[in-house]
Amino acid sequence: MDVRNPEHADLIDWKALKSQCDFIASRQAENAAATRTALLAAIKDANAKGRARAEELLMADGGGLACAMRISRLQDHIITILHDFALNHVFNADNTPEASRLGVAAVGGYGRGTLAPGSDIDLLFLLPAKKPAWVEPAIEFILYILWDMGLKVGHATRTVEECIRLSKTDMTIRTAILEARYICGQRALLSELETRFDNEVVRNSGPQFIAAKLAERDERHRKSGDTRYLVEPNVKEGKGGLRDLHTLFWISKYYYRVRDTQDLVKLGVLSRSEFRLFEKCDDFLWAVRCHMHFLTGKSEERLSFDIQPDIARRLDYHDRPGLTAVERFMKHYFWMAKNVGDLTRILCATLEEQQAKDAPGLTNVISRFAHRPRKIAGSPQFVEDRGRIALSGPDVFKEDPVNLIRFFHVAEMKELEYHPDALSRITRSLALIDNSLRDNEAANAIFLSILTSHKNPAMTLRRMNEAGVLGRFLPEFGKIVSMMQFNMYHHYTVDEHLLRTVEVVASIEAGRDKDINPLAVSLFPSIEDRQVIYVAALLHDVAKGRPEDHSTAGAKVARKLCPRLGMTPKQTELVAWLIEEHLTMSMVAQTRDLNDRKTIMDFAERVQSLERLRLLLILTVADIRAVGPGVWNGWKGQLLRTLYYETELQLTGGFSEVSRKERAAAARIRLAEALEGWNQKDRKTYSKLHYEPYLLSVSLEDQIRHAGFIRDADKAGKALATMVRTRSFHSITEITVLAPDHPRLLAIITGSCAAAGANIADANIFTTADGRALDTIMINREFKNDEDEIRRATSIGKLIEDVLAGQKRVPEVIAIRTKGKKRNTTFTIAPAVTMSNTLSNKFTVLELECLDRPGLLYEITSVLSDLSLDITSAHITTFGEKVIDTFYVTDLVGQKITNENRQANITARVKAVLAEVEDEARAGMPSGIIAPPPIRGVKKTRSGA
């Protein structure tokens, strides 16, 4: 690329700057320090103005590559001026013979003539064979000025001989020299380096260099997650980013000995349209990167959530129905990243073919004979070439477009890798995928076979997606290719999430996930139709980005697409139902009280059959696990298992007809009998402590543990006590609190957890018959080691005791913890509050949705106490930045909240808290104070009796 292209105008008047520097030298020649200070100020000011001008032009014309070239040219002028100033005015070396002068070259990205605003400036100072005494001091002078300007400068000072010797053994140095570009000084030194490098290093070493660069690329991809569909991509180093394009350029330049990417068209490596795509990707990625650097004021390479909206605005994206401006921008970004992958595949295919032709005589003949392509039985369209599937002829796809689908099916059946030339031809043949192929019965049957394969369907589908086939064959899927959802919950683009969901389903079916999802693995063999679950997994989010609810719209897509795939009406309706309900089981499990029979009855009414229940459980597990690392945990698994088993009982008529009172009495007898080694008095005392809700919802094992905990506290004379237990499989740690009942008890406990930085997942709240509260708080596990986790939970328990004893105040502890922490301003979620009296037979269900923040649960529970509401159970669910908290509440006499005026008041007060509106009723809120035990009626209603 020609960095001297006149269309890329200078950002500063560099001739005027040079005159200014000469003037500084003439005026202050006797005072070296003053001269240097004045020079630095002049150069620094020019650089700042030049970069400000570069940003103005970028905002005006949007040219990312042009911006990078302008900044590179600006840097060239500054270095040239500093070089000349050092020689002419500092070291009086202007009369030094040309052959004794140093040469200054740009290397790395700077060598390509492109610089982002925050990029490192990589310089190579070439030393003459006989260097004068002033050379090294002059280099130091230049470098120190650049460093004092605040620039990040990487440099090497070598002779030509040293460059050649080191480049033979170090691939990084070889790559840097490959892109060396003359800036100033002795040009002959760089010319000598280029000639010797070409003859002594590059010649006959193309395959070695290509292998090294591709291996380097693969390792870089592995470190960044090996997917180009991460929703916070690294624009420079990530898969499909600028470094991948640079790798293509390095390989092309090294192997084909070209100076400009455009030369690859003349050589037939890229078509003219592919070259235009190369330029388009390069320009777009440079625009994004330059905007990122200008916006953040540093070399920020990760396109994080907090800057994505600003970059979208800078690039002039706007909202559209179903997609926000930032989501449209990121979809464009991922399309470009995918295009980079296509170009990589095309270039690699051409290189491999070229290397085979270039192999020397006899070796080439032997190699071709030994690795001659072999026919694939039953598939004459394809051949096997060294473990890879290749095409038997150039017109395989034209002769029968079904081969575009069959190609992937044969590769999967025969467990073959993909020949890059075949993938390149597929990319160039996508126009053959039209409505006639989409309606082709054989093509659809083959696709369904791929999707439901017992081997690795997700890998095959991913290859189809990367080649562009999947989105063309299923246009509904094509609409969500590269689409992102602007939230912290989803880690991948929608298409990548769907493919990962299929991957998890296949893993469950193969039994590989027995330790993670034992129930799902055990249920899969009993599924009547495995095709249904795979199709639902692939399509469950296919309608994302539409104005309509994606579950409802997705069901409509399924009803249209499934018959095309050859599925029966029964299968089609089951797939549509699964897509329409794919979020239901997760939401019920995480936000509802599973001990409330109405919850189970309502859910069972929606599911209606065991087959649907099994399928929905497996789809729900796969969907959550495919969201991203760390989203799934054992606690979610436990909630889903509980919901499954309770619903299974309801569907099979397994619920007991015995009254609650009789079942509670039986449970009390079982507890008394299970307290082995206890005297009769203690058995009677501690088994009578609990009301029906406790006895019917808490396991006997936990009842025994709680009884021992309460008895130990009584013997020690403790009014306050805490107990911790880790549940490693569930990724949950329990903190059980025993304390005198108190209207603000839950608020104090949740506030203490917030002050300790613990995330609460759930809360079981009970009151004993003697006026004490027995509350168990489930917090998300933080440490892998049980000893560390117990130590952490014990310290939180101690903090809860201190707050309850009045030794510490929650607001003060939370304030200390959150001091200086930046609030999340990237995402906005409109606070929502709903109250329902139909979700439970005994309680009013209060559901809140808002942006998560430290201390939120404490604020909510405090205002609920202010409103004289008795919280029976709390369920806390976090989806990235969004939190959904559900509280089962009654008034202080144990009744539902039915008065409309009171409901409106509660909704308004809670919504004010969610929106962080100042609420006078909360001012002066007591904290850290133990109130007198409430009246007996309040104690009972708190337990739900």
Automatic annotation (TrEMBL):
Signal peptide bounds: none
GO molecular function annotation: [protein-PII] uridylyltransferase activity
Transmembrane segments: none
Chain intervals for the UniProt region annotation (Uridylyltransferase): 1-377
Reaction equation(s) it catalyzes: [protein-PII]-uridylyl-L-tyrosine + H2O = [protein-PII]-L-tyrosine + UMP + H(+); [protein-PII]-L-tyrosine + UTP = [protein-PII]-uridylyl-L-tyrosine + diphosphate
Cofactor: Mg(2+)
SUPFAM superfamilies xrefs: ACT-like, HD-domain/PDEase-like, Nucleotidyltransferase, Nucleotidyltransferase substrate binding subunit/domain
Domain HD: 494-610
Keywords attached to this entry: Hydrolase, Magnesium, Multifunctional enzyme, Nucleotidyltransferase, Repeat, Transferase
Gene3D superfamilies registered for this protein in UniProt: 3.30.70.260, Beta Polymerase, domain 2 (3.30.460.10), cca-adding enzyme, domain 2 (1.10.3090.10)
UniProt-listed PROSITE patterns: ACT, HD
Reported regulation of activity: Uridylyltransferase (UTase) activity is inhibited by glutamine, while glutamine activates uridylyl-removing (UR) activity.
PANTHER family linked to this entry: BIFUNCTIONAL URIDYLYLTRANSFERASE/URIDYLYL-REMOVING ENZYME (PTHR47320), BIFUNCTIONAL URIDYLYLTRANSFERASE_URIDYLYL-REMOVING ENZYME (PTHR47320:SF1)
Free-text comment about domains: Has four distinct domains: an N-terminal nucleotidyltransferase (NT) domain responsible for UTase activity, a central HD domain that encodes UR activity, and two C-terminal ACT domains that seem to have a role in glutamine sensing.
Name of the molecule in the record: Bifunctional uridylyltransferase/uridylyl-removing enzyme
Organism, as annotated: Rhizobium aquaticum
Gene name tied to this protein: glnD
